[in-house]
Specification:
It is a single chain. With 281 residues, the protein is an alpha/beta fold. It contains 7 helices and 11 strands. The longest helix has 25 residues. The chain starts with a strand and ends with a helix.
């Protein structure tokens, strides 16, 4: 699990410990909190670091995803603060995202480069199985939550202009945030089924009836959203089957790597073994 703004840990973990993890792409945002919740092994990474010290554009998303894969994670749940681009997505509600539009710039968005080329499919960027579990967990906790929604990822750290906000609404986007990409892309390359629960903290500046986005207002909603998110996670974990069934996303790279093995760059192959040891180890 990667927790965004307002979510800095998981309560009730047995044998909880913070673990330092190194990756070929550098250091993740923080140490990773590991333990067991209802008998399930859980790993939690605070996306912005404890104390929220890393802005969106400086996040080392490759290291974050690689670190979680390295310690044995099989599925990845993102919980993120988002702004609303639709009247019906009110502050305090949750959205289980199913699509993305990526407007970020300058962020490394792939583990692959010259020496080993791969093209993974992002047509359906989230795991339907994990997303459904998150949706049902939220409903069972009485959370105002909807399944499906388009997340537009912007570079930040500034909020969008009013013209941009109206543009994204014309694209039928549901929510707006600064961290969903390239995280979802990298999870797919690491063969980690990925789901995103967006916690709506505000209406973006398109809405004339409300004040423009202010961090103080966002933080107030975040506090209540964080408690609901913790309940959702606990209920989702309880609902997990005793045995995890294989997912088609577990073998994404089998159909994505186009460079023949005899042409693989040895140094890049060694780095890629951190995200897919079964193929590059």
């Amino acid at each position: 699990m990667i927790g965004g703004s307002g979510l800095s840990g998981i309560e009730g973990l047995e044998d909880a410990a913070w673990q330092s993890v190194d990756t070929p792409w550098g250091s993740p945002s923080d140490e990773i909190l590991t333990g067991r919740l209802h008998g399930v092994r859980i790993a939690f990474l605070p996306r912005h670091g404890r104390g929220h010290s890393i802005p969106p554009g400086d996040l080392n998303a490759r290291a974050n995803v690689s670190a979680l894969k390295k310690i044995g994670c099989t599925d990845l749940l993102s919980v993120s603060a988002v702004g609303s681009l639709k009247e019906e997505r009110a502050p305090g509600s949750f959205v289980v995202v199913d699509q993305y539009i990526d407007r970020t710039v300058g962020r490394p968005s792939s583990f692959f480069s010259s020496g080993i080329v791969a093209h993974v499919s992002m047509a359906d960027p989230v795991c339907a199985r994990l997303s459904d579990l998150a949706l049902e967990a939220g409903r069972s906790e009485g959370i105002s939550i909807v399944g499906g929604g388009v997340y537009v990822a912007i570079e930040g750290p500034q909020f969008s202009t009013r013209a941009e906000s109206h543009l994204y609404r014309s694209w039928d986007c549901d929510v707006i945030g600064m961290t969903g990409m390239p995280e979802a892309r990298l999870a797919r390359e690491a063969e980690l089924p990925y789901a995103c629960v967006g916690m709506v903290t505000d209406y973006d500046c398109w809405r004339a009836e409300s004040a423009d986005v202010q961090v103080t207002d966002v933080l107030a909603i975040l506090r209540s959203n964080a408690e609901a998110a913790k309940s959702l996670v606990a209920t989702l974990v309880k609902a997990l089957p005793a045995d995890r069934a294989p997912s088609p996303l577990d073998t994404t790279l089998d159909m994505a790597v186009v460079t023949p093995p005899e042409r693989w760059d040895p140094a890049l192959k060694a780095r890629l073994s951190a995200i897919c040891p079964r193929k590059f180890g």
